[in-house]
Every structure is written in structure tokens, then in C-alpha cells.
Amino acid sequence: MRRSIISALALAILAFFGSCSDKKEPTWQYLFDGVSLEGWRPAGGRAPFIVEDSCIVGIFEMGVPNSFLVTEKTYGDFILEFDFRMDDGINSGVQFRSPIHTGEDGFERVYGYQYEMDPAPRAWTGGIYDEARDGWLYPLTFNPSSRDTYKNNEWNRARIEACGTSIRTWLNGTECTDLLDDTTPEGIIGLQVHDIGDAELEGKTVRWKNIRICTEDPAAYFTPANPNVPQVNRLSNTISEREAAEGWRLLWDGATPNGWRGARIDRFPETGWAIEDGILKVLPSNGGESTNGGDIITDRTYRNFKLKVDFKITPGANSGIKYFVDPGLNQGEGSAIGCEFQILDDENHPDAKLGVNGNRKAAALYDLIPPEYGPLFFFSDWSWNTAMIVVEGRHVEHWLNGTKVVEYERNNQMWDALVAYSKYRDWPDFGNHETGHILLQDHGDEVWFRNIKILELD
After folding, report:
1. What would the pLDDT profile of 28-45 be if each residue is shown by its tens digit?
2. What is the pLDDT of residues 238-249, one digit of tens each?
3. Phi/psi of residue 21, each to 5°?
4. What does the alpha-carbon distance between residue 398 and residue 378 come to, in Å, rounded to a whole number?
5. For residues 390 and 456, what is the distance between their CA atoms, to the nearest angstrom?
6. What is the pTM for the complete model shown?
């Protein structure tokens, strides 16, 4: 019996190693030969790129805009790996699937997906930034467990897997991001030297080596999905397989007004709102509160949930996302009553300077609690932003672009005292309702919405 067990174990070990040896390895193509910049060219600013000690070295210079060394070829689906080392205090990145736009002045502007390289304390190396376009797509606030993998003043190993709409990144063997996005399916790969505004950073360097890419059937070598890495789905008005498994569903289908009605009527407004190219738009009017098409609300009410809404503002715009809304409370002029995630152009709308301590700025709990933006905050007034509202019983959070900016408890003495000193003091039991509608506000300015989805937590 003992001999048969040993023989079976030996056969299992041989089978295991045999299967490992039979496993195909990717066909790698090296993009840098270690001695020249053949296959690469400069774009954007003209910070120097040189070859030194079998590395590509980018040198930082004052007064030079973002500079790139880009591939002469473009790439779509691939696995890209490279080593990098950078001095403290600077910022860099590697572009991929990135287009280049040449302006009338002849300046080449590189934009698009970027593997972030940043030794700053926020520790977002490995995150995905959208250079000169949409800003942060996947800051590492979404996956904080990956933020301690960067090695200061040492060589680091990066990996990018891009296949169709799936983009994932690694740093030193740790997965950092899981992004779904279809903005750009193909483009150059580029090494960045960021502009600097501090003379003490003059002459600092970033280095790359061992730059290799697999483009022959790369999907065969992609890493299995990791459920511990949160997924960010930027595909317009869709629920991914993973989101569906988690329980997320769309609150707006991207094409019809189904599921929504006017806050004061039993149908969707005939004017004041438009559905165009997968975007739900509040149309501009006179800047008044609910004076054109009026607010719209969900057909049904919600109790405990995570709500995500992508929004884009126009210059000087004002709007909001409300929850715990009772459309029957306010029968007079103005908006329906509920707690509000403020949407505002803080720089150009006067409401940002009203209220108390900034409690009417973007992402605030309007007129009650100001947002705490902090050093990790990012807000774009030219591209899409993502609002998230989390409600679990008394506990409520506001998130903007992956950063928690407001947190509070309701249904207690402190909450009631806060409401008593706000514009909501005359509304009975404001903010304490167990359930309510979700509302998108018409404040007379053009604001765009998409990707409205909810995960009920009951």
C-alpha cells in the first residue's frame, strides 16, 4: 500500500512539472535595444531623453512642457512590461493606447491612458490617469492595498494587460487596477518627463529598461481575474458581469426615460430634458431652480444603497443629486426636498461662496456639511466625474472620483441640530426618513448624466 501511494505521488509530481514545461510562454518583442533610441521619437515638449547604462533616461528641465518619447508604431491589445527607477520629487508615467494631436502651431499633444509613476506620499504608482483628457480613471483610493508596493530609489517592475475594453496594471507583482473603458482602442506607447515648477527638481531623472511587449495572441497569457481588486466600469450605461454578480443594476438604461418621472408629475417631462447619445441632459434655461423641465425622480423609493452617477458640468453650472426625497413635501416654488450631493462649478458659480465654510461646494451635503477634499482630491470641470452616495442605515457617505469627501450620521441629536441651522429647518424630520426617491435636479443650467447605477444593500 505504501509503495502504491509513493508511486501515485511521484506520478502526480511528474504530471505537474510536465504540464508546467508544456505551458506556452509569450512571444516578447523588446521595444528598446539597450544602445539606441531606434523605433522611438520625441513628441510634446523637448526635455532630453538619452541612453545611458542600457537605460532610457529622461531628464527634467524647468520651463519645458510635458515631454514624451513615443513609439513609431501603435498598439492595441498587448501585454507590456518594463522596469523603471525615478528620483524623489518628480512625476512621470508611461502612455499606452495614446493618440497624438498636432495643433495649428505644430505642437504635438500626447493624450490618453497613462500608467502613473509617482513617488509622492499619496502612493498612486500603478494607477491609471487619462493624460490631457479625462484625468484620473483609476486612482489607487479604489484599491488602497496596492499603495505600499512602490520601492523608492530602487528599480520597480510594471505590467499592463490591455485586451478589448479590459485594462489592468501591476506593480512589482501586485495588481493595482481593473478598469473597463473603450475610449481609445489603439495608440502609441510613450515615456513621459513631466513639466516641473521647482528649480530644485532641475536635472532629476527617470529611467526605463527591459521594455518588452507581447502582441501575438496576448489574451492567451492574461492573468486570471482577481476578485479582491475592485473593478471600475466606465463603459457607458452598462453593467459588467462582475457588477451583475455583485448585485448592481442600471437606474437609467441610456436610451429611454423608463424608471424616471417628473417630481411633480406622473410622467417624464416633455421639455427641459434630453436623451442624446447615451447621455441624459438637463437643458439650459434661466438658471432657476426647477423652473424649466423640473426635477426628475425614480419611480420607486430606496432605503440602503450605493448609488453611482457620472456627471459633466458646463461652465458656471449648478445641479445636484438628491436622496431621501419626498416629492410631496414642497408644493411651492423650487426643488423637491431631500438630502443633496451638490454638483457645482465652484470657480464660476456664486453659490460656492455662500453657505457656511464651503457647505455649498461640489460634493458637499448641500447647506449642511462641506466636503473635505484633502490632498488626494481630483475634480474635473471639463470632463466626466463620478459621484457615489453610500447609505447604510444612519450612516451616509459622499464620494467624488474615488475619494470620500463627506461622512455623517443622521437620525440623532447632532444631526437635528445641524438641520436646525440650515435652510431645511422648516421641513419636518428632514433627512431622517428611512426611504425616499432619488432625484436629478433641474437648476436651469446644462449638466450631463450617464452610468446611473445602484446596488441595494438591504
Report:
1. 999 999 999 999 999 999
2. 999 999 999 999
3. -70, -25
4. 14
5. 10
6. 0.90
